[in-house]
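Teaching assistant here, posting this on the class forum so everyone can see the example we discussed in section. The complex has two components, and the goal was to see what a joint structure prediction looks like when all of them are supplied at once.
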Amino acid sequence: MPAYAKTGAVIAVLLAIGAGEACAQVKLGAVLSVTGPASFLGDPEKKTLEMYVDHINTKGGVNGQKLQLVVYDDGADANAARTFATRLVEEDNVVAMVGGTTTGATLAMIPVFEEAQIPLISLAGAVQVIEPVRKWVFKTPHTDRMACQKIFADLKQRNLTTIALISGTDAFGKSMRDQCVAVAPQAGISIAHEESYGPRDSDMTPQLTNIKGKPGVQAVINPGFGQGPAIVTRNYRQLGITLPLYQSHGVASKQFIELAGAAADGVRLPASALLVAEKLPANDPQKPVVVAYTDNYQQKTGQPVSTFGGHAYDGLMVFVEAAKRAGSFDKAKVRDEIEKTKDFIGTGGIVNMSPNDHLGLDLSAFRMLEIKGGDWTLVQ
Amino acid sequence: MSELLQFAFSGLTVGAVYALVALGFTLIYNSCEVINFAQGEFVMLGGMTTVFLGLAGVPLPLAACLAVVVTVAVGLALHRLAIEPARGSGAVVLIIITIGASIFLRGAAQVVFDKRFHSLPPFVGGDAIRIAGAAILPQSLVVLAGAVIILVLLWGFIERSLIGKAMVATAANELAARLVGIDTRATVGLSFAISAAIGALAGILITPIALTSYDIGTLLALKGFAAAMLGGIGSAVGAVVGGLLLGLLEAFAAGYVSSQYKDAVAFLVILIVLLAMPRGLFGRPPVERV
């Protein structure tokens, strides 16, 4: 069958050429929750990655090679995320991965990337992603423990040491509540009273009445997410409670101010510098980065910037910088360079990683904001 | 003392919301013995349509009226396209259809509107009224008043008007109702339209307090259903009493027992009541009409 043999040879050559061309592009994987309940996180992340990969490629790529972004949407389903992770590793041969959006998806994907020895930079919030430290796993967003520590530091400055907690019973509220309770003793803060509310509740005055009646409470912290904190804030003012009220980074968006209305005045919360890009002092090292990202994102998408897209920007740039320093896309070398990231200025803060810190942010990454007249202001 | 009063205010605020939702179940149940699980979506549509028309620049009173019209249209479409073709199937089939409709409406709202939470400004002053150390928002009183007004109108309609009687007759025996000259199709359609209007009004009234988003309907329908069962399904007075009781139970459980278990406490009490009085507090004893 010489004819078949010839055809086969031709196909083999064509395939080889095709493969050769594909090699000129380096594949970067991303499993994100673009749709589903976490879409408000995953959607800006995807837009950010696409926008900046394009941007990098028009400037000539990295190490002389163009990046090709491979995005899969897990719909906030950890099982789907794991399937896509396997596909990224086995079929797409990615050199690194930026994602999972959620903690659940990230934890499901970690074993796949650890086994394949491919760097994974997660965009998920929980501290479990980088604790214990895993060789190939990094992350960019602040943790809820840092949010607690930031609030406690601010309380200390105001000489307030006895607090009450009112937390949502959703995953975010629970996790942050646990972290706050865990770090309170070493911060010298005592928790005098605790209340909780369901994520769908429409009135929290009974819980707040109990807090109001508790002697000695000097401030109230509300770890929560979604509309709950807005209702807590309104009920807080309705009852005429005058103690300082702290919200979490979970509500750090303009929407919270819209929902809580005038009641939001005086509320403090820790948040990323990205939210107050224009208000940062001119000598702030993060200012150029957050202003540039805000302008680019709003120009490209026509939507207001969110901290979540910023985390994706940080993840992509940490990878790109590491690949440049490594001078190649060798996975082990890139991993080592990611771990050596020093003084990288991202939207989330200034990143200094080390072998036992795969996040690399300190408390200065969070800014303490106070809401005044329906807008954010920087405290201090 | 001021604590007790505050818990009571909280319970009345939440309870009024449940009462309004529960009232919506009453009418459809009275005309075809179906529990319409898309009732929560009517509430959502009322609130969301008002919010989005408001954002588009329509003055809020007009937006609210339009939202009621839109929701009534959806209610009529639900009857014409989903309930009517399945006429003759059992009540269980129709209930399952309403669950399907509720999932569909939620999905559609996600696309037509968005997935964020929204609020409306309160109708009358935003400052809390303080009574003996406790505080209540004027909007809570508006919701309570709304529930009472709708209750009176509904009661008059079902008990005193010919169309209302026709609805009860249709539910009792559709064939017999048709034989005495009642247009049963139109009667059931009308009950969907009025229920949708009640739902939409509820949604508009509660949005300044409870906020709204595309997916609030599920939980409201569940709580409203529990309230309606507690009061006796089919009874308008029962719906309001059941709603207020459920709200008060939750508030006192959250205040005096534990905020973790407030829903559990409330549902436990409902279970006990229903064990003792299976038809609910105001339910009519089952009478075979011959």
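For the discussion questions: The CA atoms of residues 172 and 213 of chain B lie 37 Å apart. The mean pLDDT of chain B is 88. Think about how each of these relates to the inputs above.
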